[in-house]
Every structure is written in structure tokens, then in C-alpha cells.
């Protein structure tokens, strides 16, 4: 069942034109001219209850603008948005009960207060019952280790602690939907992993629908099955990540450790792109030759100690799509 529905949504901003020089500045004091910036041009999608969807695209693509329309901060210029049955910008307070929001770049907590006091304030704001508050605080303290810093003012928390506090705060009122905007930005590898595990767990245990905006493709790879890719305010892909990998991830790398080092290794259908001692990295196109064919060629004349086949990470596939454009991507609207 769809919990979020976005239909032909546009968002234009009117930006004041800036004229250069003193005369220009004087002119714009008398008569200001505006130009239209189309941040979101025409976007439609629907998200089912319990999904984790990656909402990605290059800088300035329109991701935050979309999320702001879903959270009710911005009103679309045209089109329809329904979040858990409500039009977010017409029912901001009611909508706030259905959603949790985490912005990696800034905290929603009170900077000068001890963390626990921010939680207590949010409890009042969202009218969370004592029972629900206790249940959530117990769970989040256990999984996120909140007790380590509950009495520390938010401004003194490390980035990792601040993110843990923020995500716990966003879930105190048991919202069915969670918007995460760069939830792992700036975190070290271990903290990133912990955050991802937590997101997976709440999605799994509580069936919370998650929309994740990130530039970290590992977040996408580890958390989402589906991704919506946007650019210049338009949706350019909506579908399974596995499909993108299938279509764009044809170049594989075979890594072999040989018993002896060679002058050169010539293979039909494969190209050595790197070598170090007895280790060789061989690139090949899965459509033209299989890994086993390459291995058979090598083992005819050489003894192999070890081998692995590397699939391209979604990171390199997406960066190729960003660079080379979206011509080959067929938008497959998911219903
Ligand atoms: N309040 C605003 N006034 C004018 N233009 C805006 C406003 N907010 C966003 N824009 C413009 O709309 C476009 C989309 O911005 P948006 O912040 O949605 O992109 P984004 O995909 O979230 O980018 P990033 O990955 O850099 O955060 C950009 O060109 C941006 O400059």
C-alpha cells in the first residue's frame, strides 16, 4: 500500500536578479527583477509502506526541495503530494506526527541543553505518552548507547554521538515514516556501519518507511533495494538497484595470484589493467567472455594460487551515469 504519493510535482523559486555595479544596485533598489528557477520540474513516484528508498542525484538535482515538500516545509508550485493520507503543507502539525526527519548537516536538538532535556522537550512537543517515551528511550539507549552522553550538552557531542541522538529524537513519537538526509555524512567507518545497522533494524522491526537522501553510495548499496535517481528536477530512474547493476555493471575484474610472475599475460577477451608481484587484475566484459573462460585460459599455461572476481561497486556505476548522462536509463515507474 502506498504511504507516500507524489504526482506531477513542480517547484519553482523566484530569484531576484542581481545587476552588477553601482548603477545596477541602484536600479534593483527601485525595480527588482526576478527570474524563475525550476528546482523540481515534474516528479511522480509512490512509495509503499515498509520500503527503504534511496533518493539520489547530483548536487542541485532537487532532492532537498522534494523532501521539503514531503515534510510540509515547502508548498509545491503544482502537483499533488500525499504523505500517510495527508497533504503535508496543509496539515503541517498533523503531518509532523507521521514523520521523523534527520538532517545530517544540522541538528534538530537544542544546542545548549543536555541531550536528555532535548528528548524531554520533544516528548512534550509531540505529546508522546510516558509509556511510549519509556519504551523508545529504553530501546534506543540499548541499541544506540545513548546513556554514554545523555547528560552532555548537544554542542559537546561528537558527530557520531550527535547523529545517534538525532535519529533517536526523530523516532520518539513512533512515526511510520522517516526522512534521512545524509545520515552518515562525516562519520567514521565504524559509526557509519552502526548507523546503517540501526536504520535497517528499525525498518525491519518497526516496518518504518525510510526515504534516504545521500551522496554515499555505500549507504544506498547496504540499505536500499530501490532507488529513485533525479537530475535537473526530473526523475531519470526509478527501480531496483540490482537492475542498474545488471545493466551498467558488465565490466568485472578478475584478480588472480599466480605461482610465478610473468613478463606479460595475454588473454582473449580480458585485459590486464594492473599488476603487483604475482597478482594480476584483469578487466573483462561479462557479455563477451565469462570469468570461467578466462580462468581456463590462464590455467592452461600457468598455475593459479588464488582468484577472485570483483563486481563493480554501485559507487562507480552511479558516478559513470552522472558523468555520461542518462540516455540509456529507461524510467521505469514503480507502482
Ligand atoms: N530557497 C531557494 N531559493 C532559490 N533557489 C533554490 C532554493 N532552494 C533550492 N534552490 C535551487 O533549486 C535547485 C535544487 O536544489 P536542492 O537543494 O533541492 O538540490 P539537492 O539535490 O538537494 O542538492 P544537494 O545534493 O547539493 O543538497 C538548486 O539549483 C538550488 O540552487
Mean pLDDT: 89
Radius of gyration: 25 Å
Tell me what portion of residues adopts beta-strand conformation: 25-35%
Quick one: biggest sheet? Answer: 6 strands, mixed
CATH H-level superfamily of the largest domain: P-loop containing nucleotide triphosphate hydrolases
Looking at the overall shape, the CATH architecture of the largest domain is 3-Layer(aba) Sandwich
Strand order of the biggest β-sheet? 5-6-7-3-8-9
List the domain count as a whole number: 2
* Separation of the first and last Cα atoms: 10 Å
Structural class: alpha/beta
Oligomeric state, counting identical vs distinct chains: single chain
Silhouette: globular
The percent of residues in helical segments reads 25-40%
N-to-C order of helices and strands:
EHEEHEHEHHHEHEHEEHEEEHEH
Structure, briefly:
The chain is 36% helix and 29% strand. The protein is α/β, with parallel strands linked by helices and 335 residues long. It comes from Cytobacillus solani.
Protein architecture, described:
This protein is α/β, with parallel strands linked by helices. The chain has two domains: 2-245, 3-Layer(aba) Sandwich (Rossmann fold); 250-311. The protein has helices spanning 21-30, 63-71, 92-98, 115-125, 130-144, 159-170, 189-206, 217-223, 241-248, 291-301, 314-324; strands at 2-16, 34-48, 52-56, 78-83, 99-103, 177-181, 209-213, 226-231, 234-240, 251-258, 270-276, 279-285, 304-310. The radius of gyration is 25 Å and the shape is globular. The relative contact order is 0.13. The model has no long low-confidence stretch (mean pLDDT 89). Residues 13, 15, 37, 39, 57, 59-65 line the site of adenosine-5'-triphosphate.
Amino acid at each position: 500500500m502506498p504511504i507516500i504519493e507524489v504526482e506531477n510535482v513542480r517547484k519553482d523559486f523566484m530569484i531576484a536578479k542581481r545587476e552588477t555595479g553601482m548603477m545596477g544596485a541602484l536600479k534593483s533598489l527601485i525595480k527588482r527583477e526576478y527570474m524563475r528557477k525550476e528546482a523540481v520540474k515534474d516528479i511522480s513516484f509512490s512509495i509503499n509502506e515498509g520500503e527503504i528508498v534511496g533518493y539520489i542525484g547530483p548536487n542541485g538535482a532537487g532532492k532537498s526541495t522534494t523532501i521539503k515538500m514531503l515534510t510540509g516545509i515547502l508548498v509545491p508550485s503544482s502537483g499533488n503530494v500525499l504523505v500517510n493520507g495527508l497533504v503535508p503543507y496543509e496539515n503541517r502539525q498533523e503531518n509532523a506526527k507521521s514523520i521523523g526527519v534527520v538532517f545530517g548537516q544540522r541538528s534538530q536538538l537544542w544546542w545548549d541543553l543536555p541531550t536528555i532535556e532535548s528528548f524531554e522537550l520533544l516528548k512534550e512537543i509531540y505529546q508522546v505518552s510516558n509509556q511510549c517515551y519509556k519504551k523508545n528511550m529504553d530501546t534506543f539507549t540499548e541499541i544506540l548507547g545513548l546513556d554514554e552522553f545523555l547528560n552532555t550538552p548537544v554542542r559537546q557531542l561528537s558527530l557520531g554521538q550527535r547523529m545517534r541522538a538525532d535519529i533517536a529524537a526523530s523516532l520518539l513519537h513512533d512515526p511510520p515514516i522517516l526522512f534521512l538526509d545524509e545520515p552518515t555524512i562525516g562519520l567514521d567507518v565504524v559509526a557509519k556501519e552502526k548507523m546503517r545497522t540501526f536504520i535497517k533494524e528499525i525498518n525491519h522491526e518497526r516496518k518504518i518507511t525510510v526515504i534516504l537522501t545521500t551522496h554515499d553510495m555505500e549507504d544506498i548499496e547496504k540499505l536500499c533495494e530501490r532507488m529513485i535517481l533525479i537530475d535537473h528536477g526530473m526523475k531519470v530512474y526509478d527501480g531496483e538497484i540490482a537492475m542498474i547493476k545488471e545493466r551498467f555493471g558488465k565490466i568485472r575484474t578478475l584478480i588472480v595470484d599466480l605461482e610465478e610472475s610473468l613478463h606479460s599475460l595475454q588473454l582473449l577477451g580480458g585485459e590486464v589493467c594492473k599488476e603487483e608481484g604475482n597478482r594480476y587484475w584483469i578487466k573483462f566484459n561479462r557479455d563477451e567472455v565469462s570469468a570461467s573462460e578466462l580462468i581456463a585460459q590462464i590455467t592452461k599455461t600457468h598455475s593459479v594460487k588464488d582468484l577472485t572476481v570483483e563486481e563493480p561497486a554501485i559507487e562507480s556505476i552511479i558516478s559513470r551515469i552522472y558523468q555520461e548522462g542518462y540516455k540509456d536509463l529507461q524510467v521505469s515507474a514503480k507502482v
